[in-house]
Design a protein that fits this description.
InterPro entries: EGF, EGF_extracell, Laminin/Netrin_ECM, Laminin_N, LE_dom. This protein is an alpha+beta fold and 487 residues long. It has helices at residues 5-22, 182-186, 226-234, 241-250, 252-257, 467-486, and strands spanning 34-39, 42-47, 55-56, 62-66, 77-79, 90-92, 118-119, 132-144, 148-152, 159-165, 173-179, 206-207, 221-224, 259-269, 288-293, 295-298, 307-310, 313-316, 322-323, 329-330, 389-390, 396-397, 401-403, 407-409, 424-426, 430-432, 437-438, 444-445. The structure holds calcium ion (CA).
Length: 487
């Protein structure tokens, strides 16, 4: 999102504070898509996975009500409080600003007292159900990052379903069922988010936790618990976001679970506060909502760190040579390999999986980290190999070099490049010399470097065993074997 500078600064400071307060520094914020670096060939870009900052997404939605004329006030009507059916002096009138309750009051800033809210007509057509669909559309894929919270000013509904769409409203799936009696309303066993495990995270439950009536006057909210679900992977205080990101990276179903283009709140039965509906006071029964909180970020497939709202539409500002509303494809002339989403792994900077220009050589972004200077291609699309390494990914060695976490110079072997003076060849990359010798092939007497050279009294030669002593030592070690052989 683009905010005024001050807001951005405040938000960044808040983010820093929250980050230092709650989270270890080991997981990334993915706020940079690339950074400039230098190689022998000059400046180059290093690309990282990136995503927009999470924000209040209710600023960017369109709201639709079904039926469209379900908002109270046209014609004007009076309604009663649920607590006292004889207090019916509240008025809803859509033609008078102070008495109107239009849908936008579900998304305004609540700074005033009393609260502002949308309100439906009352249940005058009882026993026909009082059903209302509230659809929130972004016309853009959104990734949820926090709980969805709906605050009611009426009693909370006795039956309600929260649904989501991932295809701009063409098809819908339930997110959660809410009822005072789950078995009766939806023939589902009542559960709560605490019953959910890593293995059942994608299960849809019915909960009775948010449907108690007006008795619980201070408890006005209905939630869809995103953070509790995150916590199944990231721990109760979301300390281990790396684990969550790892799971999101590798499990498409899980990632899709938290991704939406639309939400639909299906209000099926208002709060009655009793088992029987009071047919003589139907003005008591209606829905009223003062706030809906939806926190999330534009889905940009880890190819953008900002998302702009222009002409009433959210669009990712794509990097990494990608394009499309979600950065979901490669730009023209950047199709040297198939498009791929960025990856959160490895933590903290992820992998950008940039789209490569058609004209440029080797098709990879995965330079071998041991054989190349960085694990990413340089500005021209090639991996830059370290000394001795070669191949498109710098994963092979030139003649004379051997692979050992990178290409090490081949020093010795059992045929031509022999270690001298009794040295032992270790993995073809070094000679392990006896104490008296040194040098790449153990070719130099160590005494050459000592005061007085090899003629001095502290000569390295003194450490050598005379031939007779070696024989004695061998005999002392091998003696028992000889004995066995003789017997
Ligand atoms: Ca409001």
């Amino acid at each position: 999102m683009r905010f005024p500078l001050l807001l951005t600064l405040q938000a960044s400071w808040l983010t820093v504070c929250q980050a230092t307060q709650h989270y270890p520094t080991t997981w990334g914020h993915y706020d940079l898509c690339k950074s400039e670096g230098y190689t022998d060939e000059g400046p180059t870009w290093y690309y990282m996975a990136c995503q927009p900052e999470a924000a209040d997404m209710t600023k960017y939605l369109k709201v639709f009500l079904d039926p469209p004329n379900i908002t109270c006030g046209d014609p004007p009507e009076t309604y009663c409080t649920l607590e006292n059916p004889y207090m019916c002096n509240n008025e809803c009138d859509s033609a008078t600003e102070e008495l109107a309750h239009p849908p936008e009051l579900m998304f305004d800033h609540e700074g005033r007292n009393p609260t502002t809210f949308w309100q439906s007509t009352s249940w005058k057509k009882y026993p026909k159900p009082l059903a209302v669909n509230i659809t929130l559309s972004w016309n853009k894929t959104i990734e949820l990052t926090d709980d969805i919270v709906i605050t009611f000013e009426s009693g909370r509904p006795e039956q309600m379903v929260l649904e989501k769409s991932l295809d701009y409203g063409r098809s819908w799936q339930p997110y959660q069922f809410y009822a005072t009696d789950c078995l009766d309303a939806f023939t589902m066993e009542p559960k709560s988010v605490r019953d959910i495990t890593q293995h059942t995270l994608l299960d849809i439950i019915c909960t009775e936790e948010y449907s108690r009536g007006y008795v619980w006057k201070n408890d006005k909210t209905v939630r869809f618990e995103i953070k509790d679900r995150f916590a199944l992977f990231a721990g109760p205080k979301l300390h281990n976001m790396a684990s969550l990101y790892g799971q999101l990276d590798t499990t498409k179903n899980l990632r899709d679970f938290f991704t939406i283009t639309d939400l639909r709140i299906r209000l099926l039965r208002p709060a009655t506060g009793a088992t029987m509906v009071d047919e003589y006071n139907l003005s008591r029964y209606f829905y009223a909502i003062s706030g809906i909180k939806v926190h999330g970020r534009c889905k940009c497939n880890l190819h953008a760190n900002s998302c702009i709202y222009d002409k009433e539409r959210l669009t990712c500002e794509c990097e990494h040579n990608t394009t499309g509303p979600d950065c979901g494809r490669c730009k023209k002339n950047y199709q040297a390999r198939a498009w791929s989403a960025g990856s959160y792994l490895p933590i903290p900077k992820g992998t950008a999986n940039i789209c490569l220009p058609n004209s440029v050589g080797p098709v990879n972004c995965n330079c071998n980290p041991f054989g190349s200077d960085t694990d990413r291609c340089n500005g021209t699309g090639y991996c830059k190999c370290k000394e001795g390494a070669t191949g498109a990914k710098c994963h092979e060695c030139l003649p004379g070099y051997l692979w050992d976490n990178g290409c090490k110079s081949r020093v010795c072997d059992s045929e031509l490049l022999r270690c001298q003076n009794g040295g032992v060849c270790v993995n073809n990359i070094r000679c392990q010399c006896p104490p008296a010798y040194t040098g790449l092939l153990c070719e130099k007497p160590r005494c050459e470097n000592e005061p007085g050279g090899c003629g001095g009294s502290y000569s390295g030669q003194a450490y050598l065993y005379p031939p007779g002593l070696i024989l004695l030592l061998l005999l002392s070690i091998l003696g028992p074997v000889f004995l066995v052989e003789i017997c």
